[in-house]
Amino acid sequence: MTRRQIGRSVAEQLFAAESAIDDALAEAGALASLLPRARQDARLSAVAGHEAVAATAAGLGALTEARGQLVKAHLALAALAAQLGMNDLAVGPLDKPADRPPRKARLALIHSRRQSALTG
């Protein structure tokens, strides 16, 4: 493999990791939002499930920290790509709406799961 091919492979994996951490943050955020409402809808004491709420919030913090570390890695890799004259690899996708398919189906699935959890 050439350096450019290796660089492209690294860039693609970095973008996949960034996307995955954003997806994980979104899913954990949805859970963090759902837990208090589920407790209220079930008419449970505020004490009920507090450990789960706190653990989910801590998980969000950890995911946010992990995302920050990936951002640092991205910046370091972009600087290295620039040093090696591979500036075209230093930018990568910008996640513009045209770059990714709409996520409405996924959001509908999450909403459906929430409704099932609340009515089930």
What is the structure about, briefly put?
This protein is mainly α. It is built from four helices and no strands. The chain has one domain.
Description:
It is a single chain. By secondary structure, the protein is mainly α. The chain has one domain (3-119). The protein is 78% helix and 0% strand. It contains four helices and no strands. The chain has helices spanning 3-41, 50-83, 87-91, 104-119. Helix 1 (3-41) packs antiparallel against helix 2 (50-83) and helix 1 packs parallel to helix 4 (104-119). It is elongated, with a radius of gyration of 19 Å.
Write the layout of secondary structure elements.
Blueprint: H1 3-41, H2 50-83, H3 87-91, H4 104-119
Helix pairs in contact: 1-2, 1-4
Salient structural properties:
mainly alpha; 120 residues; 0% strand; elongated
Q: How would you describe the oligomerization state of the chains in this entry? A: single chain
Low-confidence stretches: none
Beta-strand portion reads under 5%
Number of helices: 4
